[in-house]
Amino acid sequence: MTSLAHSAWTSNGSTMALLLTVLAGVLCLMSASSEVTPQPNFDAQGMAGKWYLIGFATNAEWFINRRASMKMGTAMFTPTAEGDLDMSYASLSPDGSCWRLNNLARKTNALGRFQYTSERWENQNEMYMVDVKYDEYALTHTIKTKGGESTVVNKLYGRGVDLSPEVKEKFKLFSLETGILPENIAFLPKNGECPAA
Fold first, then answer.
1. How far is 25 from 36, CA to CA, in rounded Å?
2. What are phi and psi of 169, to 5 degrees?
3. 152: exposed, middle or buried (C-beta count within 10 Å: 0-12, 13-18, 19+)?
4. Neighbours of 191 (CB within 10 A)
5. Which among 151, 6, 158 is positioned nearest to 73, based on CA atoms?
6. How far apart are CA 115 and CA 103, in angstroms?
7. What's the pLDDT score for residue 26?
8. What is the 8-class DSSP label of residue 45?
9. Phi, psi dihedrals of residue 190, rounded to the nearest 5°
10. Which tens digit of pLDDT belongs to each residue from 64-99?
11. pLDDT tens-digit profile of 86-134?
12. Are residues 118 and 26 in contact, defined by beta-carbon separation less than 8 angstroms?
């Protein structure tokens, strides 16, 4: 083999190895997400009210860059008469302003599985209410799709600003099982609250 051919082969081999690694990661993510199921007998009414966003986990690139600046925020879940969930989120910024986001998650034919389109981020979302203890915590798993690419976001909500180490460990293990790297699993620092909108 000539040195030029060998060089091309080595280069192609490296590219192929990288592609196979990426493909394996995507397949692992798809496989893990396909096994996620909503909590049996999920009750949308039980989600009603205020929650604190305590845990956040995703391999999305934007999170890797912004993780250090993220802090705890609050979410309000309001069930509708049709069985959908109106979700509003608010987070207090260091300058005292409030970052707000609202979405209407529509029920599907599976209890505990919802779909919504985020106008702000221009993505399609499929959200699973994976594990909920209505007076204590809620663990959600969302597959976000934009331009044919999918990312996973897991969130851990609490009725209060503190959750037990056992619940946090459950969230961490679930996130690892759904293909999220350990360094991309975060428990958000406490923060002031936005005034009611």
1. 17
2. -65, -40
3. buried
4. 18
5. 158
6. 10
7. 45
8. G
9. -65, 155
10. 888 888 999 999 999 999 999 999 999 999 899 999
11. 999 999 998 999 999 999 999 999 999 999 999 888 999 999 999 999 9
12. no
